[in-house]
Amino acid sequence: MVSMIVKEVYAKTILSKSKVLDYTVNPYVGCQHGCTYCYARFMKRFTGHREDWGSFVDVKINAAELLRNEMKKKKAARVWISGLCDSYQPLEEKYGLTRGCLELLLRQDWPVTIQTKSPLVLRDLELLRKSSKVEVGFTVTTADENVREIFEPYAPPIGSRIEALAEIHSNGIRTFAMIAPLLPNAEGLVSQLAGKVDYVLIDKMNYHYADWLYKRHRLEYALTSDYFAQKKTELAVAFEKEGITCRLLF
């Protein structure tokens, strides 16, 4: 694990408009997972961080207080936890900011979509079971642990994510998998996700932070338009055969 610079900060706002869902809540800036392809590193242009992506996290210690106040001024609508940095990254175990925000949202019956790579979300399972307006998704980009270690060396193993999805799904909570970016050997996810998710989202690599890794490991073929076209059709057909709705985002 890389050396991590952790700073406690006071944010000015927490409930932000989202282009994907109605709102997004991001209790942390920066992410310990440090995935090589992560689009969220663009934030460095606005936050002033000079550290490498994956080596810093700003902790918004007033996140819950801010959210409580901002919710009073806005109409209930679906909240994405989170749109940028993983709200269940390891520091959440210490700070509990995501849990604090989740408690507020569910208490007021706001609909919530959680997206993470971390089984730490299971800590909050008893909260999630109390709402019919919650869904939980895991980002899973490949079924191949060797590929995962190349692109996501500090994120939880694929197997632990799928096991967490299974447990959440078995508790009657709506679940989904986000296969994005679509990395090599993702086809093995079809059988692994069967019976554990309500739907799947698939998107290609739309950014190029990790191109150098593709070249280093001779995986350039998996960046071509032909590859993405073939794989999206293959995966869509396979998921539909399993009775899983598949939404293609490209």
What does this structure look like?
- 32% of the residues lie in helices and 18% in strands.
- It is of the alpha/beta class.
- The protein has a single domain, classed as pyruvate-formate lyase- activating enzyme.
- α2 (63-71) runs parallel beside α4.
Task: Write a brief structural summary.
By secondary structure, the chain is α/β, with parallel strands linked by helices. The protein has helices spanning 44-47, 63-71, 92-95, 97-107, 125-128, 145-151, 158-170, 189-193, 211-216, 225-241, and strands spanning 5-9, 15-17, 23-25, 28-29, 56-60, 79-81, 112-116, 134-139, 174-179, 199-202, 245-248.
Instruction: Estimate percent helicity.
Output: 25-40%
Structural class: alpha/beta
CATH class: Alpha Beta
Query: Regions with pLDDT < 50 over 5+ consecutive residues?
Result: none
User: How many strand elements?
Assistant: 11
Sheet bearing the most strands, described? Answer: 8 strands, mixed
Mean pLDDT: 95
Q: Which shape, going by the Cα principal axes? A: globular
Cα gyration radius (Å):
18 Å
Determine the CATH topology: pyruvate-formate lyase- activating enzyme
Strand order of the largest sheet: 2-3-6-7-8-9-10-11
CATH architectural type = Alpha-Beta Horseshoe
What fraction of the residues are assigned to beta strands by DSSP? 15-25%
Number of helices: 10
SSE succession: EEEEHEHEHHEHEHHEHEHHE
Distance between the termini: 33 Å
Number of domains: 1
